[in-house]
Amino acid sequence: MLELLNQLDGFSSDERIKVIAATNRADILDPALMRSGRLDRKIEFPHPTEEARARILQIHSRKMNVHPDVNFEELARSTDDFNGAQLKAVCVEAGMLALRRDATE
């Protein structure tokens, strides 16, 4: 961490250089990292809304043979606090389970 802080402090003020960092655990960042002149601007991307989750699930399952009775809105309601990557993983896992089940029948 000390090396990162030193590197950030070593940048000269040049408008052409932007340092971007990402984390899914902003709550455990060292406050020294977020002080003015280092990473002093924070942009949060909240979890998708229920409507957005339903759409994300549809997008990630569009190339799958999905049964017409699948209710994406209901699935979205049961995936509160899921991010896009987690929703994609749900679709991938559902596809894998379907393949395994079909292979054993």
From TrEMBL:
It comes from the Eukaryota. Pfam families: AAA, AAA_lid_3. GO terms for molecular function: ATP binding; ATP hydrolysis activity. Residues 3-46 form the ATPase AAA-type core domain. Keywords: ATP-binding, Nucleotide-binding. Residues 69-103 form the AAA ATPase AAA+ lid domain. The keyword Nuclease does not apply. SUPFAM superfamilies: P-loop containing nucleoside triphosphate hydrolases. Belongs to the AAA ATPase family. PANTHER family: 26S PROTEASOME REGULATORY SUBUNIT. This is Uncharacterized protein.
